[in-house]
Amino acid sequence: MLAQVPLFADLNHRELKRVARITHQRHYAQGEKIFHMGHPGAAMFIIRTGRVNIVIPSESDGLVLATLSAGAFMGELALLDDSPRSASAIAVEDTQAIALFRSDLNKLLETEASLGSKILKSLALIIGQRLKLTNQQLAQAQMSKSA
C-alpha cells in the first residue's frame, strides 16, 4: 500500500519496510472524526479502505472540500509542525487508515537521515504541487467573478 502513495514513491523495498514499521493502523467508524479543524496536527493519514470527507465545519452541515478514498492521503502538513488543522476529516463510511506520526518521522530522521530526507523532499514537492493547483483555482475563480 505504501508504495502507491506519492509521498513514498521514490523509496526502495527496504526503505518502504522501514517506514511500514513506524506506521500505525487505525479504524474509524462511519461519522467518526479523524481529526478536527483548529486542533494541532500530529499525524498524516493514508486511507486503506473507506471514504473520508474533508470538511470546513459550520453550524449547519459544513462545507465539504473533498471526498477522499483508498490510496489518498491527508493531513501531511502535520509531519512538519503542530499547526492547527485547516479542516476536519470525517469518515463517510467505516474506514481503515495508516497513520504516520510526526514524532516517529522525527526519530527516523535521527536514525536514518537519508531515508528521512527522501520523505521530506517528496513532501515538499507534493505541498508545492498542491499550492500551485490552489493558486490556479483561485485565479480561475477570480476571473469568473470579474467576467
TrEMBL record:
<dbReference type="Pfam" id="PF00027">
    <property type="entry name" value="cNMP_binding"/>
</dbReference>
<dbReference type="InterPro" id="IPR018488">
    <property type="entry name" value="cNMP-bd_CS"/>
</dbReference>
<dbReference type="InterPro" id="IPR000595">
    <property type="entry name" value="cNMP-bd_dom"/>
</dbReference>
<dbReference type="GO" id="GO:0005952">
    <property type="term" value="C:cAMP-dependent protein kinase complex"/>
</dbReference>
<dbReference type="GO" id="GO:0034236">
    <property type="term" value="F:protein kinase A catalytic subunit binding"/>
</dbReference>
<protein>
    <recommendedName>
        <fullName>Cyclic nucleotide-binding domain-containing protein</fullName>
    </recommendedName>
</protein>
<dbReference type="GO" id="GO:0030552">
    <property type="term" value="F:cAMP binding"/>
</dbReference>
<dbReference type="InterPro" id="IPR018490">
    <property type="entry name" value="cNMP-bd_dom_sf"/>
</dbReference>
<dbReference type="GO" id="GO:0005829">
    <property type="term" value="C:cytosol"/>
</dbReference>
<feature type="domain" description="Cyclic nucleotide-binding">
    <location>
        <begin position="7"/>
        <end position="109"/>
    </location>
</feature>
<dbReference type="InterPro" id="IPR014710">
    <property type="entry name" value="RmlC-like_jellyroll"/>
</dbReference>
<dbReference type="GO" id="GO:0004862">
    <property type="term" value="F:cAMP-dependent protein kinase inhibitor activity"/>
</dbReference>
<dbReference type="InterPro" id="IPR050503">
    <property type="entry name" value="cAMP-dep_PK_reg_su-like"/>
</dbReference>
